[in-house]
Amino acid sequence: MLSRLSRPQALAVCAVPVVALIATAALAPLPFSLTQPGLTANVLGKNKGEPVITISGAATRDTSGQLRMTTIEATGPDTSVSLGDVLDSWFRTDRAVMPRDAVYPSDKSTKEIEKYNTEQMRESQDAASEAALNYLDLDPAGIEVDLELEDVGGPSAGLLFSLGIVDKLDGDGTGGDLTGGRTIAGTGTIDADGKVGAVGGVALKTQAARRDGATVFLVPEAECADAKAELPKGLRLIPVTTLKGAVDSLIALEKDNGKVPSC
């Protein structure tokens, strides 16, 4: 015959599996990636000693200021992320927790993901070059644009590449710089027609931009709310939907004529 347990004894017995369950959950890997502000790079300058933008077949101009593309850093696709890691990042403004599938394709190996990101970067660079030359009404057949940026993958630098090409070839169209001597940062995909697309991670990218000296951040219009969520002090947001709109906004900012859109 079984004896009846007292309330304290029953609680003690029940607590053992509960504690074990919590401990197991805390240590078990979860399907998340942890992200943080990543590197930024001035597309008007050099990366690891080599120019990011090289143009042949057309005269280029010296530029001032900076156009900085921005990134986020994420834990690798094979990195084990625990509940403790998630909770620690969840309450920090300089970290974000994202579903792993939102960062990496779930059906690809690490090498396949690296290859995929490299391909996306190359396609983005081709589209950025075409968009910039189309905007300037220049014949792509007679002008060669080479874009080199190591250790960065994906398509999110497209807008900044296009702006860098436009600045090197034409500036603001009247002899001045698109940047007005400022440090401008931003993000956004771009297609050959100059349409700017959303990218994700903009709240962290604004932090990377401000950390590296930017005072203006170009953001895809659809992501204004995300960019404003943790906006660093001293960073101005300018929403964009097209390359032309981005150029017009920078020229308006340079000339201080009050026609600069805001989020």
Automatic annotation (TrEMBL):
Organism, scientific name: Streptomyces cinnabarinus
Protein name: Lon proteolytic domain-containing protein
Taxonomic path: Bacteria, Bacillati, Actinomycetota, Actinomycetes, Kitasatosporales
InterPro entries linked: Lon_proteolytic, Ribosomal_Su5_D2-typ_SF, Ribsml_uS5_D2-typ_fold_subgr
Pfam families tied to this protein: Lon_C
Residues in coiled coil: none
All copies of domain Lon proteolytic, residue ranges: 154-240
